[in-house]
Predict the structure.
Amino acid sequence: MMSPALLSLPQVLVVLPLLLSLPCFTVSTQPLGTNNHSQAQMLQSMSMAPPERETLFHVMETMSSDRDWRFSNPDPCMPGSFWPGIECKPGSDNHLHVTRLDFGATPNPTCKNTATFPSEVFDLPYLQSLFFFNCFKTTKTSLSMPPPAYKPAAYASLQQLSLKSNPSLIGPIPPHISSLSSLQVLTLSQNHLHGKIPEGISGLTSLIHLDLSYNSLTGSIPAQLGSLSSLTGLDLSYNSLTGSIPPSIGQLSQLQKLDLSSNSLSGSVPESLENLGLLAFLALSNNKLSGQLPKGLPKLQNLQYFIMDGNPMFVPLPYQLGRLSKLQELRLANSGYSGSIPRSFALLANLTTLSLENNRLTGEIPAGLSGLSRMYHLNLSRNMLAGVVPFNAGFIKRLGKNLDLSGNPGLCLNGPESSDSISVGVEVCGGNRSASSMQQPLRSSARAPSSLFSNFPLLLGCLALWPVTGF
Ligand SMILES: *[C@@H]1O[C@H](CO)[C@@H](O)[C@H](O)[C@H]1NC(C)=O
Ligand SMILES: *[C@@H]1O[C@H](CO)[C@@H](O)[C@H](O)[C@H]1NC(C)=O
Ligand SMILES: *[C@@H]1O[C@H](CO)[C@@H](O)[C@H](O)[C@H]1NC(C)=O
Ligand SMILES: *[C@@H]1O[C@H](CO)[C@@H](O)[C@H](O)[C@H]1NC(C)=O
C-alpha cells in the first residue's frame, strides 16, 4: 500500500505543469495599480448586483460562522473590505462578480460543523473556481446540483470544481455533472462518495484533470472516459471499482498520470496502453490484474514511475521493461513474477527504486544492477534468488538500510565484512555455512516461499560459488 505522502512527489511532477497551463485565476480585488487612482475609484464605485450578493451571503452563512458576513463586510468584493477566500472581477455590466470561492483552510474561511453543500453556488453566474477542502465533517451532505433544465448560471462558467477531504460528503456523483460544460479540473478526492462513476462525465470534453480517488465508488470504469481527449491526469485510486480496465483508456493521448491503484480491477492490462506516449506516472497496484503486460509497453518512453505491486500476475518478469529508459521507480512486488531478474534492468540508468520483493524470482542477481549510480532503494527480499550477491562494499554501504535481500536462502555474500551480510539479510558465502547447511535452514527468520524451495537453491548457489557474470 502506498501512502498519500509517497505519491506526493510524482503528483507534484504531473500536477505542477498542469496548474501552470491553466488560465490564471489570480485577478482579484487586489491588483489595482496603487498609483492609478482613477481605476481604483472606478472599481470603488462598482458593486455586486444585489441578487448575486444575496446568493453569496447565503452561501457564506451555510458554510462558515467565522463572522457575521452580512454585517462585517456588506460589500464582499469591495477593495479594502473584500472577504477572504473569494475573488472578484469586474464585468462588462459595471458590476463586480465572484469568480472564485475557496473554503476550508486558513487564510480562507473555515467551515462550521453544520456546513452542508450549498447548491446555490451554481447560481453565481461568473463562478470559475470552487474549492471546498475539509469542510463537511459531521453533517451528512451530498453533492446536490440543480437540474440542468433550471439552467444554473455557473454551469457554463465553472472551470475548476474541487471538493476534497470532506468525510461527510456522501451519495453519488450526480449524472448531470456533465452539464458543467467548461470544466477543466474535477477533484472529488477523499470524500465518502459512492455509486458508479456516471458515464456522463465523458461529456466534460474540456477536462484536463479528473481525480475521484479515495472514495467508495463501485461498478466498472466507464469506457466512455476514453473520449476525454484533453485529460492529462486521471486518478481513480482507492475506490472499489471492478471489471477490467477499458481499452479506450488508450485513447487519452495527452495523459501524463494514470492511477488506478487499490481497486478490484481484473483482467489483463490492455494493449492499448502503449499509445499513452506522454505517460510519466502509471500506478496499478493492489488490484486483481493478471497475465502478460502489454507487449508495446516499451513505447512508453516518458514513463518515470511504474508502480504495480500486489497483483496476481504469475508471469515471467518481462525483460522489455529495461527499455523504459526514463524509469526512476519500478515497483512490482507481491505479484507472483517468476523467471530471473532481466539483465536489461541494468540499462535503467535513472532508476532510484527497484522493488521486486515477495515474488518467485530465481537465478542470480544481475551484476549490472550495481552500476546503477542513482539507485538508493533495492528490495529483492522473499524470492528464490541464488548465487553470490554481485554488489561491492561501496554499493552496499551507499544503500545501507534500503538494501534488502533477506528471505532468499540461496544467496550469499562474498566479502570479509560480515556486518554487511547481516544488514542486507544474507549469509557470508562458504565458511560455517557449508558445514551446517545440509541439516538445517540457515536463517530461521527467512520467510522462504515454501520449505520445498528453501534448501534447493542453497545447494546450487552457495556451495558451487557461481562465477559472477557481468552484464
Ligand atoms: C489607469 O486607469 C485608466 C482607466 O482604467 C487607464 O486608462 C490607464 O491606462 C491606467 N493607467 C495606468 C498607469 O495604469
Ligand atoms: C536521467 O535524469 C537526468 C537528471 O534528472 C536527466 O537529465 C536525464 O535526461 C535522465 N535520463 C533519461 C534517459 O531520462
Ligand atoms: C522489503 O520488503 C519486505 C516485504 O517483503 C519488507 O518487510 C521490508 O521492510 C522491505 N525492506 C526495505 C528495505 O524496503
Ligand atoms: C563460525 O561460527 C562460529 C560459531 O558459530 C563463529 O564464532 C565464527 O565467527 C564463525 N566464522 C565465520 C567465518 O563466520
In short: DSSP finds ten helices and 23 strands in the chain.
